[in-house]
Specification:
InterPro entries: EpsG-like. It holds the Pfam family EpsG. Keywords: Membrane, Transmembrane, Transmembrane helix. The longest helix has 23 residues. The N terminus is likely disordered. The two termini are about 30 Å apart. With about 350 residues, the chain is mainly alpha-helical. Helix 2 crosses helix 3, helix 13 runs antiparallel to helix 14 and helix 13 runs antiparallel to helix 17. Helices cover about 65% and strands about 0% of the residues.
Length: about 350
């Protein structure tokens, strides 16, 4: 299946990127994306011109880092990998190609966060930022170190909800525009988006409650779980909570900490549910598939034209292999066929 949904990650975009020998003349200053994105693509393109060479390199790099983190911090590795495959694998490897490179660096940076090894931490964070601008979150979280060192409580969650509600107004937009002008356009775009269906909102609320409960269990019990995982899960909780009001936190920033949540979830199920764990796995997998299926529906007919955007995946048939050399015009032709068929169905309803 070919799924090249991330803007800047299509075959056409890669064709515009020079080979390694031409990078010295490339205008990084006025380029649309972060510099390491172009350098990585140029490297892969020089080895093999086909876009699938980059996709294979990308999958090895991103999944290699994720498997390393899971292996380092988790006793029940296969359980966590199962959750990763069910919930996140396609998203990281087929859609957010640029950001998943950045979050891989973020995972390596978090190895140094709890011990306050700031030189190593900020080095990896800056490297992450060189892949995708959302890596800015890694440079911000040291300033809320006190949050990561405190114990989760309901008062803290209430404060986060109030802060998220206040900042969901024009306030945060102006702050970002004043201090982070290079990030203001993306922030504006994501802040205007609406959740396409109620399933997206339900999922976010359930995740906030679930993560808060699990983190609380590990904070109050004597466990062998690494402090790095607990801290990462707390930042996942923070971004998901703020994401209830500001979508950019749950759709972008939360990605950097999701693996820690999955590690806690896998460990929690194994240690608390015993023989029932297989049933829990099945229910969780079914829930994830159900939510993704409904959250990805095209609900453009339900959304007002003034809503500035909504989340859904453009799905059209037939799917194709990443090894097929399909032109941009052909992809557009297939997409137009899908929309025409959809329009015909609506006319007969």
């Amino acid at each position: 299946m070919g799924w090249q949904a991330d803007r800047g990650c299509s075959t056409v975009q890669v064709e515009k990127i020079p080979f390694l020998e031409g990078l010295s003349k490339f205008d990084f200053l006025h380029a649309k994306y972060a510099p390491m994105w172009y350098i990585t693509n140029s490297f892969c393109k020089t080895i093999n011109f086909n876009f699938y060479s980059f996709q294979i390199f990308h999958a090895i790099l991103v999944n290699g880092v994720i498997f390393y983190i899971v292996s380092k911090y988790c006793q029940y590795r296969f359980t966590v990998i199962f959750f990763y495959v069910v919930a996140t694998l396609l998203y990281f490897n087929c859609e957010i190609l640029r950001e998943s490179l950045s979050l891989s660096c973020g995972l390596l940076a978090m190895n140094h966060y709890k011990e306050k090894r700031w030189l190593q931490y900020f080095s990896w964070s800056l490297f992450a930022l060189s892949f995708h601008k959302s890596g800015i979150v890694l440079l911000v979280i040291p300033f809320v170190y006190r949050y990561s060192a405190s114990t989760i409580n309901y008062k803290q969650l209430l404060i986060l909800l109030i802060v998220g509600f206040i900042f969901s107004s024009f306030l945060l937009k102006h702050i970002v525009g004043s201090f982070l002008p290079f990030f203001s356009d993306s922030f504006e775009e994501y802040s205007q988006m609406k959740r396409a269906t109620i399933f997206g909102s339900i999922r976010s609320c359930l995740i906030v409650l679930l993560v808060a409960y699990i983190v609380k269990q590990y904070e109050t019990a004597n466990s062998n779980m690494s402090a790095t995982v607990i801290v990462g899960a707390k930042f996942y909780l923070l971004t998901q909570t703020l994401g209830l009001f500001l979508p950019i936190f749950s759709t972008r920033f939360a990605n950097y900490f999701q693996i820690y949540y999955l590690i806690l979830l896998g460990d929690f199920i194994w240690n608390h549910y015993g023989a029932k764990k297989i049933l829990i796995f099945a229910l969780y997998a079914n829930f994830i598939f159900g939510v993704v299926k409904n959250q990805a529906r095209d609900v453009s007919d339900w959304v007002s034209s003034t809503s500035h955007g909504y989340y859904f995946y453009q799905r059209y048939y037939p799917y194709y292999s990443i090894f097929d050399d399909i032109s941009y015009d052909e992809l557009n032709h297939r997409k137009n066929i899908y929309y025409q068929e959809r329009l015909n169905r609506l006319k007969h309803e």
